[in-house]
Amino acid sequence: MAFFKNIFSPSILAADHAALGEGLRTVLKYNLSWVHLDIMDGNFVPNISFGPQTVKDLRKIDGEIFFDTHLMLVRPDKFVEKFIAAGSQLVTIHVEPNYDVAGTLKKIRELGCLAGISLNPDTPAEKARALLPLVDLVLVMSVFPGFGGQAFIESAIPKIETLAKWRNGGEGNFRIQVDGGIDATTAPRCLAAGADTLVAGTAFFKAHDKPAFIAICRGEK
User: Fold this and answer.
1) What is the distance between the alpha carbons of residues 71 and 91, in angstroms, rounded to a whole number?
2) What is this structure's pTM?
3) At a CB cut-off of 8 Å and minimum separation 6, what does 78 contact?
4) Beta pairing partners, 92
5) Within 10 A of 14 (CB to CB), how many other CB atoms are there?
6) CA 198 to CA 113: how far, in whole Å?
7) Among 77, 136, 179, 196, which one carries the catalytic annotation?
8) Selection from 34, 139, 162 nearest residue 92 by Cα
9) Residue 16: in which H helix or E strand, if any?
10) Catalytic one among 38, 68, 77, 136?
11) Catalytic annotation present for 38
12) Which whole-number Å values give the CA distances from 127 to 121, 199, 212, in the listed order?
């Protein structure tokens, strides 16, 4: 049975976009090992965030923190090289758009980067099953991507449980990440279902007691 130490990856999308560097410094202040970078193209999701140059500039602030990059793009296959060159160490792509998903996952790994696959709330876990040997992480979206601060969608829990069952049955060796509506109530439920990597933006940056929130997201309290 696969076992991974729980990781909390704050989403910098919820930081002040006029001062993303300060947002990263806030993450670093709490000695967190991962930061989540949401990349949106305004087509696959109804919002636009930032591109490879921003990732490259954030990397100048710190060379050690793990860049967990989530590409919400219609054609992520056209951009993986740029984001890896900019400093991403994990690139997660979506299964829903029409492109060579398996080939893109293989390309990410060939470029020396970890590869992830993401599922929207209305996409069944089965859509990722054949890809599990090609990935290092499966991201379960527990909100529809595009905007922060949304409420957690309950269908994420059985999806996490299904992925954990497949992993424990030897169908892959991958982390299970959850993003969307993660707070002090939903984080423990996701961990209990089998997740080991939680993403939160709004709840982290607005938390009055960030160490306590981090501990909850790591399953430490």
Assistant:
1) 7
2) 0.96
3) none
4) 70, 116
5) 19
6) 20
7) 179
8) 139
9) none
10) 38
11) yes
12) 12, 22, 36
